[in-house]
Amino acid sequence: MDTKKCPCGEQMIHSTNQGGVREGRVKVWYEYAVQRCLACGHVDPDNDAQDAALEWAQLELTQKLAEVKRKKDIRDARWNWPADYYLAIRHRLNLTQLQMGCVIGGGQSQIVRYESGATTPALATTKLYYLLDKNPHLLGSVQDPE
Ligand SMILES: [Zn+2]
Predict the structure, then answer these.
(1) Ligand 1 centre and the CA of 32: distance in Å?
(2) Which residue of 56, 85, 93, 94 shows the fewest CB atoms closer than 10 Å?
(3) From ligand 1's centre to the CA of 13, what distance in Å?
C-alpha cells in the first residue's frame, strides 16, 4: 500500500495505532495500520485493518472472559459449601460452637450463622475449616487456652 498525501500537502508514512477492548478487569490491546502525517499529526486509518483488528480483539476478549468464568466456576464449585459442611467439620473436630467460634473468630453466634446458612463464611474461613478438617492435629496450634 502506497502512502497518501496528507491534506496539508506532506507525504504520509505507514504507522500503527493502538486500541483496546475491555470488560471489567479483562482487557485486550490491538494494533492496526494507519497512515500518519509527521508534519501535522493527521492520522488516516485503514478501516478494514482497524475493523479486522477490533474483531480479533473482541474474539480474544470473549475467550479470556470465558477462561476467567471457567476458573471462577471451579473455585465456586470447590469452596461454595452447603451450611451442613461447617456443622459436619465442627463435629469431626469434636468442638462446641463456642469453641469453634474461638478458633475461627466471631464467637458462637457466627458459627450458628454459618451452620444455619444465614451467613456465607469468607473464603479464608472456609479454607481454614478445610485445613483443620484435613489436619485435625493442627487444631491445638490455633486453639486458645480455656
Ligand atoms: Zn499533514
Answers:
(1) 20
(2) 94
(3) 10
